[in-house]
């Protein structure tokens, strides 16, 4: 009997699919990483489905790769070992909204937009905004963040509790509903960001916020990148509680104007947003005007109504698609390093230099309030395209970030793309991660081949990567 | 050869002590938990001392219990298995202050006040304030928090990176300097709060903040507890970024006035503090006045200069000592539950009722912006004192908090006092914690007997504790 038929004996057969189109849709994500067909796709509708599937997979050594909406950018959901793709989109119930405690309980397949639509009825919102309408389970699995993280934090800061099915079918809750705790080990934050390699999330308790009395967005235009970065740093230094703080290159604004029918000045810009009471936003705006003027800002345009504001953030979020739209048939390799704020100007400069030298096309955009920078590079799957050149570009930027004590991935996750930098970034700590993986998933059935290969020999890898480190990637 | 002499062969002999007074000082903390003499106290001066000691202890199955200044309130530093008390106070160097990135690197024996004195020169401060001048290593080990957590978070939110010596002498770094990361498992937050059971911290990288332009403190006096709690909740609901929000009973104010020569009105009060720019603090104060008036506040007294403000917070921090001062010869058992905000009024009421029924003496104080409540109960080590009654009181409050999806410890840690509630609070997740402990410290040398006993059989414990749960402890 084949795998799909066996699985149909365990859970209702309409939750098991081997339809070719469905298999194709689960073979890839939004990244450039090569697709890999899986054997079967499961659509669980309740926790018990997952428990049974996992138990079966564990006994029979079958890979289980969780899948949300497939908006990942590092291949975390690509089932590289085949087996089962576990699509959680039918587990999309908002289980409880608790406005008094600013908490919601959701199933993992609920999407960000779906949740915010419902929360709006209570005057609440969920803060993490990666752009894509991802599932909350997927966002927790990669510790996603985005434009509002500078004020409201990453997923890890906003997940209060998880229900998790472990590799052997045991079910745990990692946290509780209290705002703080010193009880036991912090399993919640161990599981957030583990990309499905330690367990399958079946329920999430999330912290939400009251919709601010006043929301004001603005575009600030600067003559140079350095002035824009210094202006951003000055805001953070004096502690303005800015809610969004995005860096956009002039070239990107050109694409955005073309795609979105806007007429933003096509020069280095910061897209910003203020949240607060009327009085506090007025105070924050005044201070910002002063600091930006001191740093060469030559236009500060406010979007006070919701349509102008929505247009602005839609433009920002569509920057990746705008780039593709201008270059039909191409894909984008998106770098994702995050560095300490003092290294921001340097890493932008280094990225530009590498791009120019490589002759690659693309642009730079960044959540610069967090030191997180994306260079979107156009790539082509045609054999004539020099993929090695793109990989070298990505690697040079990662190594530069690591030399600045930064990280190879600020928000997209490790997946397939950043595996090769794990030993360089984490050193001996990677062995500790592997020990934890091994004790919780000894048969390596949970999203195998992601973050690290459990069979790697750490010492050799570290040595090799360090040997290959080019001189040009040094921080100073 | 005895243990001390063997250790003197490994590290310089002046770092090894068996002096009776020193042994006594390392046999206890600030809690009521019984003292336990250790065999030897080590004062390492560099990381290499710790590595050598740990390797020796691991081979020879000797317990190693880290010790800061001994200000813990749950016995986490009491060496219940004897062996080595590892006193880190000589590793007290501030290694680097990086104002541009709002980061500092310190050794674990640096204390909070020591760090803030140095940071002040740069216009910076470290936010976590548990009252005691604890070491930062100790604070990280229990995931300490305190009066400023409502705005700036717990230790886990402010530790960016740790250097840790593992049980086998390997040294790892858990994080990096970037503000956010999705790379690998989040080991930093696994180690923070692990109370020295997973490794010894040898270096901490901490996030710090700019000293706000304006700091304004105030006392708000209310006729009833419920009105004070509702006023606090209303502030949080509208999102006033309050920096401290403390609940103090009228009775406690009586002690404080007596000890501190103040003349605060002896009625239920909130001690609050605003941080921000001049404009934003004015806006926050105005909104607070309005909300407090609507909730029955009959006096709102501002302390705008630093001496009045320091007097206020000193009084708040001294509340525990004021209670002891009024009752010479007594000790304090301090409860530490944390509950969702909606359950706050109920848990205060329940705590009062239990206290009245038990006839125990003491008062209630709370970081109510976080839902964290302390009932300080006077206890006596004389045999005539009914210790069982105090334990039952503590247990009733813990069980009430757990029925509200809260935690048995908001900030003091599990140590010895909250071990018995771990299976009730964490269920099967406790087995996962034990698996992690076992894989990282298979010989159980690191602070054995804390958080959990590795030999416990989980299922039986859970069943027993649940069976004993009194009907009166139900939330609804």
TrEMBL record, chains A, B:
Assigned EC number: 1.1.2.4
Domain FAD-binding PCMH-type positions: 32-211
InterPro entries recorded: FAD-bd_oxidored_4_C, FAD-bd_PCMH, FAD-bd_PCMH-like_sf, FAD-bd_PCMH_sub2, FAD-linked_Oxase-like_C, Oxid_FAD_bind_N, Vanillyl_alc_oxidase_C-sub2
UniProt key word Oxidoreductase: yes
A matching Pfam family: FAD-oxidase_C
The keyword Manganese is assigned to this record: no
Names of required cofactors: FAD
GO molecular function (one): D-lactate dehydrogenase (cytochrome) activity
Keywords carried by this UniProt record: FAD, Flavoprotein, Oxidoreductase, Transit peptide
Family stated for the protein in its record: Belongs to the FAD-binding oxidoreductase/transferase type 4 family.
Record-given protein name: D-lactate dehydrogenase (cytochrome)
Species: Evansella vedderi
């Amino acid at each position: 009997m084949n795998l799909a038929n066996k699985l149909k004996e365990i859970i209702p057969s309409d939750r098991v699919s081997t339809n070719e189109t469905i298999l194709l849709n689960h073979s890839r994500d939004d990244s450039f990483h090569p697709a890999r067909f899986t054997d079967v796709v499961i659509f669980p509708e309740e926790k018990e489905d997952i428990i049974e599937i996992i138990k079966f997979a564990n006994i029979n050594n079958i890979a289980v790769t969780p899948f949300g909406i497939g908006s990942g950018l590092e291949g975390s959901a690509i089932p590289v070992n085949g087996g089962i793709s576990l699509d959680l989109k039918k587990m999309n119930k908002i289980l409880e909204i608790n406005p008094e405690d600013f908490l919601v309980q959701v199933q993992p397949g609920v999407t960000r937009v779906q949740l915010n639509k419902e929360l709006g009825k209570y005057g609440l919102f969920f803060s993490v905004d990666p752009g894509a309408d991802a599932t909350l389970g997927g966002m927790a699995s990669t510790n996603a963040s985005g434009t509002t993280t500078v004020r409201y934090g990453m997923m890890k800061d906003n997940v209060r509790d998880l229900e998790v099915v472990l590799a052997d079918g045991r079910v745990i809750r990692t946290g509780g509903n209290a705002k703080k705790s010193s009880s036991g080990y912090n399993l919640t934050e161990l599981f957030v960001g583990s990309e499905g390699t330690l367990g399958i999330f079946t329920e999430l308790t999330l912290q939400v916020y009251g919709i601010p009395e006043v929301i004001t967005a603005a575009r600030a235009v600067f003559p140079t990148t350095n002035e824009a970065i210094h202006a951003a740093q000055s805001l953070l230094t004096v502690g303005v509680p800015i809610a969004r703080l995005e860096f956009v290159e002039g070239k990107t604004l050109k694409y955005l104007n073309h795609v979105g029918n806007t007429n933003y000045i096509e020069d280095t810009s910061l897209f910003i947003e203020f949240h607060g009471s009327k009085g506090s936003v007025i105070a924050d705006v005044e201070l910002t005007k002063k600091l930006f003027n001191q740093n060469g800002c030559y236009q500060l345009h406010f979007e006070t109504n919701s349509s102008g504001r929505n247009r602005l953030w839609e433009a920002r979020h569509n920057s990746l698609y705008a780039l593709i739209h201008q270059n039909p048939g191409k894909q984008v390799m998106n770098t994702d390093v995050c560095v300490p704020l003092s290294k921001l100007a340097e890493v932008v400069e280094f990225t530009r230099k590498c791009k120019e030298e490589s002759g690659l096309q693309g642009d730079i955009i960044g959540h610069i309030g967090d030191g997180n920078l994306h260079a979107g590079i156009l790539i082509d799957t045609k054999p004539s395209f020099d993929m090695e050149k793109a990989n070298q570009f990505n690697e040079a930027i990662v190594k530069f970030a690591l030399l600045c004590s930064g990280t190879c991935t600020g928000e997209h996750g490790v997946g397939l793309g950043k595996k090769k930098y794990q030993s360089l970034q984490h050193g001996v700590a990677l062995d500790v991660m592997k020990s934890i993986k091994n004790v919780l998933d000894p048969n390596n059935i949970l999203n195998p081949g992601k973050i690290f290969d459990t069979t790697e020999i750490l010492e050799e890898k570290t040595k090799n990567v360090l040997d290959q480190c080019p001189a040009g990637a040094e921080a100073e």
